[in-house]
Amino acid sequence: MSARWVKWASAAAYVVMLALGWRYPLLGTLVFAFMGAFVLLGGRKKWCASACPRGSFLDVVWSKLSPRRQAPKWLSSWKFYGVALSTFLILFGTQLLLAHRAGGLDARSLGFIFWRMCVISSLVALPLGLWANHRTWCSFCPVGKLIRL
């Protein structure tokens, strides 16, 4: 399987998950499970480069719209990453707590949380790609940074 095919398939998965995840929340769970399996099977370094659904979408589609300006250095600083990660974890933890209080955590509720986190982070990633470089989000993506630690 070529890297180009993986990138296109992954970008398509991103679009499908964003479009249908609210109706079929298990799609969010599947994307999260795919990431976990990929990383556990030794694809840590390749996840961000070719298998990450958002990164693939940003490469395949958003790169055509991006002005390809260099992002400010502070966006890739560890200090900014700490703020971004803290915000991400607070949002994620709050949603887990609310779902637990509302009736428990199952694959469906977790999938909806993963979908919602993807939507929220896409609302940051997509405008950044139109403002600077299409992959600006990747410089402080919480998942990518945690995988590389």
From TrEMBL:
InterPro entries named in the record: 4Fe4S_Fe-S-bd (IPR017896)
Name by which UniProt lists this protein: 4Fe-4S ferredoxin-type domain-containing protein
Sorted UniProt keywords: Membrane, Transmembrane, Transmembrane helix
Spans traversing the lipid bilayer: 12-41, 78-100, 112-132
Annotated 4Fe-4S ferredoxin-type domain residues: 29-69, 120-144
Highest taxon above the source species: Bacteria
